[in-house]
TrEMBL record:
GO terms for cellular component: membrane. This is ECF transporter S component. Keywords: Membrane, Transmembrane, Transmembrane helix. The chain crosses the membrane at residues 12-28, 40-65, 71-90, 102-123, 143-159. Pfam families: ECF-ribofla_trS. The keyword Transmembrane applies.
Length: 170
């Protein structure tokens, strides 16, 4: 196996692990689940490494946290919702990044965070009913998505200043 492929695989595994750990370690309990900081890491991975890494790390990393944490019913939804969150964040950021970096990151976070809470709202509405989805889940998901995008900005800017690149990135 060549160095480029090894570097990509290792980086992907680390990104998945970082999302899982950030989701598991910092948990703020809510009525029907918990608010976590995994989204911060999804946004960082997506901004620094791009769409593919954002999707895979967001989807698998968050789904593994559901598996380890016993939230089995959320695993399929989490894989799709968090994977799309990373993909959307990276896509929007890549499209806007030639403008003001902070504004581009915040817009990407706003759009990706909105996808995340709408995705969980739809899933929770189907699984548990409208009242439960509105009352106890939406406020936590909104706070998690938007707050995470704000917290991620200085980390992303700092990492970008290091000119971090995988072996095959140019």
């Amino acid at each position: 196996m060549n160095n480029q492929k090894t570097s990509k695989i290792t980086t992907m595994a680390m990104a998945i692990a970082l999302v899982t750990v950030c989701t598991m370690v910092i948990r703020i309990p809510s009525i029907n689940g918990y608010v976590n900081f995994g989204d911060i890491m999804i946004f960082i991975v997506a901004a620094v490494l791009g769409r593919k890494f954002g999707f895979v790390a967001g989807g698998f990393g968050s789904m593994l946290a559901d598996l380890i944490g016993g939230y089995f019913i959320y695993m399929p939804a989490t894989f799709i919702i968090k994977g799309l969150e990373g993909l959307i964040f990276a896509s929007v950021y890549e499209r806007l990044k030639n403008n003001n970096t902070v504004v581009s990151l915040l817009i990407a976070g706003l759009i990706a965070g909105t996808e995340m809470f709408l995705g969980y709202f739809i899933y929770n509405n189907i699984m548990f009913g409208y009242a439960d989805a509105i009352g106890s889940l939406i406020p936590g998901d909104i706070m998690q998505g938007y707050l995470s995008s704000i917290i991620a900005v200085p980390f992303i800017i700092a990492i970008k200043k290091t000119n971090f690149k995988l072996l095959n990135q140019e």
